[in-house]
Give the backbone structure.
Amino acid sequence: MSYHDSPAIWKSLLLQGVKEDGWPWDWTSLGIQPKSASVKARIIAKSDGIWAAEGLVAALSLVAPELGTASRARELLTASSRVRTGTRFKKTQTVCEWKGIPELVLALERPFLNLAAYACGVATATRRIVELVRKACPERTPRITATRKTLPGYRDIAIHSVIAGGGYSHRVNLAGGVLVKENHIASAGSVSKAVTAARRIAPHGLKIEVEVRSERELSEALRAQADVVMLDNFSPKEVRNAVALVERSSHRPLIEVSGGLNENTIAAYAMPGVDILSLGGLTHSVRAADLSLLVT
């Protein structure tokens, strides 16, 4: 289990979801007289996908005491995942089982499903992209990475889910690396000035990446000794030309391609010489997995 899959991170999101739902004033559930003190429930997949919610399942037992009586924590809610993180699940499969007092099962149902559906949706989309790229360029498969295009509060689970699907994280946050983008270049006056300024204050050993939009800017980034160049919104033909330019250079940075990448276009960019393919769509416009909770 990685840091990004920590139950403590999932716990905070679950509690936020319960708070937003106004759980203490759930008049529907409050009006029901449970037929038993404890119920069982199953999370059932209604679509195929990649499981990425093992840490979320573990977080349920951390959340329950804060919504009930701490002295009865073991009686409140227990849950177990039937699928391991990164493993494929099938439609109609039971992926998780719960047992606990009815009011907590009902309170946590929707927040849990929302988070699990998002995480599994990201992991599933990532796995599809990874498989497409592996097939298109088996001899030297580029890494698939996410971006910082995530909703506030969701970054850790987004990164975790991309990794569960076979991808990699990019910069986790602004401190994770220097990425000189077009607005930095415009503010500094040139690629070389922006890189020089960043290199002057960045911690020793931190990689410097430069986003370029043309071969001219790529040449500037090469002269500035950038560690990574990001080809932004290049066509496949332009990427091939850029790779050739880099290979003729005395300085060989890593080559990242970004912008306009999706399931329909990704294979055309998976070519020798490209090291990284980054997709914002993995986290900001993914289709959620279809999951349902049934009390038994």
